[in-house]
Design a protein that fits this description.
The complex is a heterodimer of chains A (235) and B (79).
Chain A lengths: L23 H13 L3 H23 L2 H17 L10 H19 L6 H5 L40 H4 L2 H12 L3 H12 L4 H8 L3 H23 L3
Helix pairs in contact in A: 2-3, 2-4, 2-8, 3-4, 4-9, 7-10, 8-10
Chain B lengths: L5 H4 L3 H5 L5 H13 L1 H18 L8 H16 L1
Classes of the chains: A mainly alpha (235), B mainly alpha (79).
Chain lengths: 235, 79
């Protein structure tokens, strides 16, 4: 199937590889050195870059905003404390987020929130939600000449007024849909589609396989699309 | 080559976007997409969904938190 000559295969539109800047590893070594030497500006630039994303991620695990702030603070402290042991096997940001996710998980266990233990312990096995992307009754049944084809095509959103599509209410619906997702799906869609991290980064942060990351992301997106479809069909 | 059905295609959209489909699957995917307005709409809606989710991103850090972190950094430095 794929060619064995090592020739590049064509990539479809939205592939999101990490963009190769001038040697990011070297930038990172410089960054770590600045931090170790006590450079406050370097530290505050990092805070500006990651703090908001870290807070949102932590809040997902612990629920409460104030607790999320504590957990985030602890993650920064732990990162600083272990900075001299950072080996550069992953990027700094991946390493930092991994510390955060671990801290947030154990905190949420201590606080006995309702997240099932298994969901936190093993993200790869965490997802009991294997519902299809589109309800099966929207396709022609087995035995039909066109089995598996749409009974009725989805309605395009192209005719909707932009003001409606981009409204505050739409935002609210999307947020609500994301909050209803299992936590592993939430983590992946937030990191990928809101924070804009690459698949590779997210796999490392959450310690999930690439295939699993993709499944979780797809389920999450499909769920949000369903919510939007229902909402846009309301009027 | 067996035709891809709509029901199969909707499960593969993210893998397609990520360039993770094996070559023959990608061919079947694109061939189907080229002749199926329903799936074309579905894939377009997934793109729109991704864009709309991306719009949720907001950047702000409270000055309080910044101040606390700066203090934490100074404490760490002193040790």
């Amino acid at each position: 199937m794929s060619d064995s000559n090592g020739a590049p295969t064509s990539q479809p539109a939205v592939s999101q590889a990490t963009s190769p800047r001038d040697d990011p590893r070297q930038d990172e070594r410089r960054l770590i050195a600045s931090l170790l030497s006590g450079d406050e500006d370097a530290f505050m630039r990092l805070v500006e870059q990651y703090q908001a994303a870290m807070l949102r991620l932590a809040q997902m695990y612990v629920g409460d905003r104030a607790v999320a702030e504590e957990v985030t603070q602890e993650a920064w402290l732990s990162a600083l404390k272990n900075l001299d042991r950072f080996e550069g096997r992953s990027s700094f940001k991946t390493w930092l987020f991994h510390i955060l996710v671990n801290g947030a998980k154990s905190r949420s266990l201590r606080e006995r929130r309702s997240i099932p233990f298994s969901a936190l312990a093993d993200p790869d096995a965490a997802d009991s939600d294997d519902a299809p992307s589109v309800a099966p009754e929207r396709f022609r049944p087995a035995g039909d000449t066109y089995a598996g084809g749409w009974l009725a095509f989805p309605q395009s959103w192209a005719h909707l007024p932009e003001a409606h599509v981009a409204s505050h209410e739409t935002r609210e619906r999307i947020l609500a849909a994301i909050e209803r997702l299992p936590i592993t799906q939430q983590s992946v869609i937030r990191l990928r589609d809101i924070e804009g991290y690459s698949a590779e980064d997210v796999c490392q942060m959450l310690r999930v396989s690439e295939a699993n990351q993709r499944v979780l992301l797809h389920r999450a997106r499909a769920r949000v699309r369903q919510a939007l479809e229902a909402y846009f069909a309301e009027e | 080559m067996q035709e891809m059905t709509c029901k199969e295609l909707v499960e593969l959209v993210t893998a397609y976007f990520e360039g993770a489909l094996p070559e023959d699957e990608q061919t079947r995917f694109e061939r189907h997409l080229g002749v199926c307005p329903g799936c074309e709409t579905y894939v377009e809606q997934m793109r729109q969904t991704i864009a709309l989710v991306g719009d949720l991103r907001e950047e702000h850090v409270s000055p309080d938190a910044q101040q606390q972190l700066l203090q934490a950094f100074r404490d760490w430095k002193r040790q």
